[in-house]
Amino acid sequence: MDGGTLYSIGDLARRTGLTVKVIRFYSDRGIVPPTDRSPAGYRLYDIDAVARLDLVRTLRDLGLGLSTIRKVVNREISLPEVAAAHAEALAVQIRTLRLRRAVLTAVARRGSTPEEMDLMHKLAKLSEDERRRLIGDFLDAAFGGLDATPGFAGIMRSMTPELPGNPEAEQVEAWVELAELSQDPDFRASVRRMAERHAAERHAVERAQGEATGLRRDAVAMVRDQVGPALTAGIDPASSQADPVVAAVMAQYAHDMGRPDDAGLRHGLLAQLEAVNDPRRELYLRLLAVINGWPAPESLTPVLDWFIQALRARIPG
Question: Which residues pair with 44 in a beta bridge?
């Protein structure tokens, strides 16, 4: 068959694998118009109709609407323009589906109530600006007025989630859980107390050591370094074998604070470590790592549990 051959709608159906009804539908809408009519009034198509129908089928499979397809085949708009716009629309649809999947997964896993599911869905749909404002409000409640203290600006940055533009389902689920946690008034109060104790400690060290402040180790880091070997060795925190560990931590802490190692100092350190040992803090950091694509943080719970028990057993009265 040469380029001048005309085909009936039945011939076209056999060549393309489409039904006569479908081809007639596209023809009626001007997407694949007939080239001519037979003496009996039947539609006739040229070879270009085959190519058009193949393109139409491909574009329909990709989800394009008929009005857009008609513009493409009639060259009113270019295919690259349509492809770019459709790819962007699909990206939005994919993100929406991921959000829905994350919410449903969280509901199934946690046994949420309808009210909790509604809240999770709203949190998942927040825009980037809305997410920043929500977390900014949490960080301001926790650290507001304390950000002049050395290191606090870095702490606030390190606690800021950055959900990527094309997140995985587990990142969305982690974001929803973290957002819920950040709105918990009791957790906010706990983080605020922790921050205020940390600020007070830094100021006390500044008074005691002046410019040497930057050389001190964080109290939690001291506990982690000293307790790690004892924990590995299976030492009972209430036993006499734990005495040197507690003594080493307290000697360094008393030196940094410029105070004697007495009951008051030990009570203060105990309160600080108990605040840090809040399981919700560790949960926040674990969720943050998932959202930001960071390595999973080290769990401080075992060493803090050990030292809190050891220190509590060695505070007089």
Answer: 8, 36
Last residue of a domain, one of 53, 77, 101: 77
User: Per residue in 98-139, pLDDT tens?
Assistant: 777 777 777 787 777 888 888 777 877 888 888 899 999 999
Residue carrying structure tokens 């857009």:
68
Rounded Cα distance between 130 and 125, Å, is 9
Q: Is 96 within the bounds of a domain?
A: no
Domain housing 13: 7-77
pLDDT tens digit sequence for 6-21: 889 999 999 988 999 9
Distance CA 285, CA 121 (A): 22
Residues 189 and 276 placed together within one structural domain of the fold: yes
Q: Write phi, then psi, for 45 (nearest 5 degrees).
A: -130, 150
> Does some domain include residue 145?
yes
Total domains in the fold of the chain: 2
In terms of Cβ atoms closer than 10 Å to its own Cβ (0-12, 13-18, 19+), residue 284 is: buried
- What residues have CB less than 8 Å from 152, skipping those under 6 apart? 143, 146, 195, 199
Domain check: are 15 and 131 in the same one?
no
Does residue 86 belong to any structural domain of this protein?
no
Q: Token digits for 32? A: 């694949």
**Which token pair is 1?**
């068959």
Angle at 94 (CA atoms; ends 111, 70), nearest 5 degrees: 140
CB-CB contact of 14 with 53 (8 Å) = no
Bridge partner residues of 43 (DSSP): 37
224 close to 236: Cβ distance less than 8 angstroms: no
- In this structure, are 198 and 291 located in the same domain? yes
Q: How far apart (Å, rounded) are the C-alpha atoms in residues 107 and 99? A: 12
Model-level pTM?
0.65
For residue 85, give Cα distances in angstroms to 78, 164, 165, 309: 11, 21, 17, 61
pLDDT at 290 over 90: yes
